[in-house]
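Quick review question:
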């Protein structure tokens, strides 16, 4: 008894195959998102660029002088990380700083983030535009050192 034609088998294989295409703007896999949501997980080397905050997706109004970040749409997840602190490290120069997640970066891939100008300037001159960093969410309730 023949269950599928060659064409039908091909379609079943394609539809059943996992597809992780976050690098081209399609939703990241649930496994990738779940992994990064855990506060102890550090992102792989990621790009960080500058953005100018205002009224963010978390409902907070921030300025260029506030240490805030925007995260990918997938990680934002309806506000699951609103106002959660993030530890950001530039291994190239040894600088570590903290920023609060307040907005969505619709153009960011899963691991990329955007930094307010004052936060970006802690790592590099603003003219640099894009830097490579590692980052992770801090536990809920965390407050950065003063």
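Suggested answer, residue by residue:
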């Amino acid at each position: 008894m023949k269950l599928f034609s060659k064409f039908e088998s091909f379609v079943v294989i394609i539809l059943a195959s996992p597809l992780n295409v976050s690098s081209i703007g399609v939703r990241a896999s649930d496994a990738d998102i779940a992994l990064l949501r855990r506060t102890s997980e550090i992102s792989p080397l990621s790009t960080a660029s500058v953005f100018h905050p205002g009224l963010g997706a978390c409902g907070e109004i921030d300025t260029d002088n506030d240490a805030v970040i925007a995260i990918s749409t997938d990680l934002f997840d309806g506000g699951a990380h609103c106002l959660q602190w993030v530890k950001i490290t530039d291994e190239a120069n040894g600088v570590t700083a903290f920023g609060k997640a307040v907005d969505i970066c619709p153009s960011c891939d899963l691991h990329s983030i955007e930094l307010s100008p004052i936060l970006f300037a802690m790592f590099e001159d603003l003219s640099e535009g894009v830097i490579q960093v590692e980052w992770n969410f801090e536990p809920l309730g965390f407050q950065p050192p003063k």
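Why it works: The helical segments are 6-16, 30-37, 73-76, 117-120. Confidence is low (pLDDT under 50) at residues 1-26, 35-40.
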